[in-house]
Design a protein that fits this description.
The chain contains 13 helices and 13 strands. The chain is an alpha/beta fold. The protein folds into two domains: 169 residues, Glutaredoxin (3-Layer(aba) Sandwich); 133 residues, Glutaredoxin (3-Layer(aba) Sandwich), CATH 3.40.30. The strands form four sheets. It has a four-stranded mixed sheet. It has a four-stranded mixed sheet with strand order 9-8-12-13, with helices on one face. It has a three-stranded mixed sheet with strand order 7-10-11. Strand 5 and strand 6 form a beta hairpin. Helix 9 packs parallel to helix 11. The longest helix is centred in the C-terminal third of the chain and has 14 residues. The termini are far apart.
Length: 336
């Protein structure tokens, strides 16, 4: 064990549980004990991981995050996932709103929340994987099933970044066991062919990428698209839906002729369902993680209200929206 790790281990061992380093930026969800406590100098952490034949994984979470809770209490309690994670990466937990000082790979010092902004973290949990030079080689936004987590770790462990993009690798992995049938579900508000997504100014455009047999996609239709706080902002959007493996022809928002599969690769679609929002031909926001109806409604409001122009951090917008609803006497459950 390197000397600085030894000193840190001794410091933790001699410190009362209430003052562990993690508590300086508290997590509402308990972080597994097998996560690594360090001085948060990521130059050293990457070097230590390299020495042990591993790579660095940074987890961003936040207080009250139900998706973080699900990740920690389901995926990170699966023995095979725990064993694979511990043998593949050095896992370090950060609080998206935390104030602990970190030293980034280029020597800059900043707080946890400043690093979150630097790395464009918009969802919690977010898992970032780094190579030996400190480059991000993979990103997982939101809750990840054991199957997807194992697939990501396989990519990282086998150093596959030189052979295949992470997004392409992950696209073939289901979020959950597939539902029976395997057909895409239609909605009356979906655009009909021909798919010209470069239509003139008007409503913002929402493009949804779904896969046949995708349980999370079926849940989106069964629960999300049935709620009034979802259908109302949907009516302010033009909505198109594609299978990212389909060869259906389309014109992209930028006016380029393409197919759904080629455009999905260009956009780096790695999850189903993924929601990508466009205004005036340019992408302005996307949701590429498992999402429950409250966060789905929040994402739709975020774009259709134009709030994304003033508040670049989606998590802050979600918190403000929840607080405003509570002040109005409404019950707010982030998981519903």
């Amino acid at each position: 064990m390197p000397w600085h790790r030894l000193l840190l281990a001794l410091a933790i061992a001699l410190t009362a549980p209430a003052t562990l380093a993690q508590n300086a930026s508290p997590h509402a969800i308990d972080i597994p004990k097998w996560f690594t406590e360090t001085f948060l100098d990521f130059r050293e952490d990457i070097a230590d991981a390299r020495r042990d034949g591993k790579r660095l994984m940074i987890y961003f979470g936040q207080d009250g995050c139900p998706y973080c809770k699900l990740l920690m209490q389901s995926t990170f309690t699966e023995t095979r996932v725990v064993d694979r994670t511990r043998s593949t990466v050095v896992p370090i937990a950060l609080n998206l709103w935390g104030d602990r000082e970190v030293t980034w790979t280029d020597g800059r010092r900043m707080s946890e929340k400043e690093l979150g902004r630097l790395l464009a973290v918009q969802f919690t949990p977010t898992l970032l994987f780094f190579d030996e030079k400190g480059k991000v080689i993979g990103r997982l936004n939101g809750y990840q099933s054991p199957q997807r987590m194992e697939a990501a770790l396989d990519y990282v462990a086998k150093r596959m970044e030189g052979k295949q993009p992470f997004d392409a690798h992950m696209l073939g992995v289901a979020h959950a066991p597939p539902v029976k049938g395997g057909a895409l579900i239609d909605e009356p508000f979906f655009m009909k062919p021909p798919y010209d997504l470069a239509r003139g100014p008007g409503k913002p455009l929402l493009v949804i990428f779904e896969r046949p047999g995708c349980a999370s996609c079926e849940e989106l239709h069964r629960e999300g698209f049935k709620r009034r706080d979802v259908t109302e902002p949907l009516a302010r959007l033009t909505v198109a839906r594609f299978d990212p493996a389909s060869h259906v022809e389309l014109t992209t928002p930028a006016g380029k002729r393409s197919t759904a599969s080629a455009w999905a690769r260009e956009l780096g679609i790695a999850y189903a369902p993924t929601l990508v929002f466009f205004e005036r031909g340019a992408e302005v926001f996307r949701v590429e993680a498992y999402v429950r109806p409250f966060h789905l409604a929040s994402a739709l409001d975020y774009v259709t209200s134009g709030a994304y122009r003033k508040e670049p951090n989606f998590q802050r917008y979600v918190q403000a929206r929840a607080d405003a609803q509570r002040e109005q006497g409404k019950a707010v459950d982030l998981w519903k």
